[in-house]
């Protein structure tokens, strides 16, 4: 084959590539995301959290473990900088730090309930529970998605401006909470095998 036909073949191949449609991942629906998340009735992960508070110059950093057992149990065990445990079981929230223990009923604290329910309901794939408190906006594909929750309940909106979750496939990778007063937190989540 001479040089000229080879050059023409390359040009034709290049033109064919330009003319072929670019394949993009199909957009993900909220129904599909919730169905994918609901496939995992339990999960364990490690987390790192940074809280930016207006009264402090530097962010507060913490890390620990998360455990979720559908439909209603969520545990957050902070290991650093100080041990602290938060256990949500049904509508009861138990907080422990050192020798101090507080037990709260979520019905008495709707603003706290809204923040916690956003994480628990997302992990459970419970769209109805989310939509009782938030307007949902989803962007992306199954390969990489972002779910934004905007409170519809005024009591929750007085505390939370927005919650933004990012994930890959059926795994939540980060939870960012922007509070109404401007404070914020970003939790990065790394999935791990649940304890036996």
Helices and strands in order:
Elements: H1 3-19, H2 30-38, E1 42-52, E2 60-69, E3 73-80, E4 84-89, E5 92-97, E6 100-105, H3 110-124, H4 127-133, E7 134-141, E8 144-151, H5 154-157, E9 160-168, E10 171-179, E11 184-192
Antiparallel strand pairs: 1-2, 1-11, 2-3, 3-4, 4-5, 5-6, 7-8, 8-9, 9-10, 10-11
Task: Characterise the protein shown here.
With 196 residues, this protein is an alpha+beta fold. It has a single domain, classed as outer membrane lipoprotein receptor (LolB), chain A. Helices cover 27% and strands 46% of the residues. It has helices at 3-19, 30-38, 110-124, 127-133, 154-157, and strands at residues 42-52, 60-69, 73-80, 84-89, 92-97, 100-105, 134-141, 144-151, 160-168, 171-179, 184-192. Strands 6-5-4-3-2-1-11-10-9-8-7 form an 11-stranded antiparallel sheet. It is globular, with a radius of gyration of 22 Å. It starts with a helix and ends with a strand. The model has no long low-confidence stretch (mean pLDDT 86).
Structural class by sheet pairing and helices: alpha+beta
The 3D shape can be described as globular
CATH superfamily: Lipoprotein localisation LolA/LolB/LppX
CATH topology: outer membrane lipoprotein receptor (LolB), chain A
Kindly estimate the percentage of residues that lie in beta strands according to DSSP.
over 45%
**Unreliable segments of 5+ consecutive residues:** none
The count of DSSP E runs of length 2 or more, i.e. the number of strands, is 11
Radius of gyration, in angstroms, nearest whole number: 22 Å
Helix and strand pattern? HHEEEEEEHHEEHEEE
Largest sheet: 11 strands, antiparallel
